[in-house]
Amino acid sequence: MIYNIPDKNVTYIARARQLWSERDDIAYLYGAKGQRCTDAIFEQLWNAEPSYFKKYNSNQKAQIKSFCMGKRLMDCSGFINECVGDFKYSTAYIESCTNVTSPDKTKDGDLLYTTFGGKGRHIGIDLGHGFFMHCPSEMHSIEIGVIADYPWERGGTYEC
């Protein structure tokens, strides 16, 4: 299928690719939106979301903290914030999208969204050719995957 990709979507992909090139300096941490990780920032973010972080024991927390120290911290919506130049959370992004469709019908630069069957919320960006980019979870940075292999539920065009 051949279709025109909106200029803004091309810009979103370009920003995502720039972040990909910086991925060794980026760490996922739930609730983070681009802060540089220090002891104080890590503890502030960790303590802000006790219901989320309770799944980790003290050894896991220490491993996550070690992975994060000195890096730029972001969660999935923090990653999308930097791609689209806006500041929202994952659900607000998909609710702001137009042309919402199934993940196999999104266009390059569209946003992808899942609730993991009602167990969470996550957002990424369609890179084209069946691939996506996202910032997935603790102990990870930005990653690329195959859209069809991930539980995306819907996607749409974001109008910033």
Overall pLDDT confidence: 96
Q: Biggest sheet, in brief?
A: 6 strands, antiparallel
* Percent helix: 25-40%
Rg, rounded, reads 16 Å
Number of strands: 9
**Structural class from helices and strands?**
alpha+beta
Q: Could you give the order of the helices and strands?
A: HEEHHHEHHEEEEEE
Any idea what the shape is?
globular
By DSSP (H or I, 4+ residues per run), the number of helices equals 6
Q: What is the terminal-to-terminal distance?
A: 26 Å
Residue stretches low in confidence (pLDDT < 50, at least 5 long) are none
Strand content: 15-25%
Strand order of the largest sheet: 4-9-5-6-7-8
Task: Give keywords.
24% strand, three-stranded mixed β-sheet, 160 residues, single chain, 35% helix
Summarize the structure.
This protein is α+β, with helices and mostly antiparallel strands and 160 residues long.
